[in-house]
Amino acid sequence: MWDAVSYFETQNGKLKVTKGKYTFCKVTGINHMEEVLSNLKSSDSFLAVDDTDDGMLVKRGGAWFKHRTIFVYILKKFNIKNQDDRAEKVTEVRAVFRSLSSKLLVDKNKISELMFFDDSRIPYHEVPGMWVGETCGLYFSIAIDEPTDLVYDADEWE
Fold this sequence. Notes:
The chain is of the alpha+beta class. Helix content is 26%, strand content 31%. It has one domain. It is built from three helices and six strands; from the N terminus they run αβαβββαββ.
């Protein structure tokens, strides 16, 4: 199973624009930005990954797959009284998103666990106005469909 948290934490330390500048965080959803909130006083840029494991089982071509959706948040603090500052920060966040997306596409052919990454679409959403702790940014999602063994085992049952 592909470890999205480790992957994006590694990329945060390798991408020149984020290395040493963006605090990596784990969060449990868009409404629970725990590590972002706890780091607001010490950092102004964040790369956060939702580490919850939500998904569904799907059947494709006679086989079962565990469909997981991973959410990644790219956030920067901005001066709420200065829309030019916000525009500058959003431009940087968009560039980070583009770089992370291109790296994912390259790594799909290099990392065996990423072979099940659905590269047909990478939806993203910009955060309107001000969000968590006077930040702006965007979040995107990626889908992974990993084969799952659903063979019934009678020994598991009484």
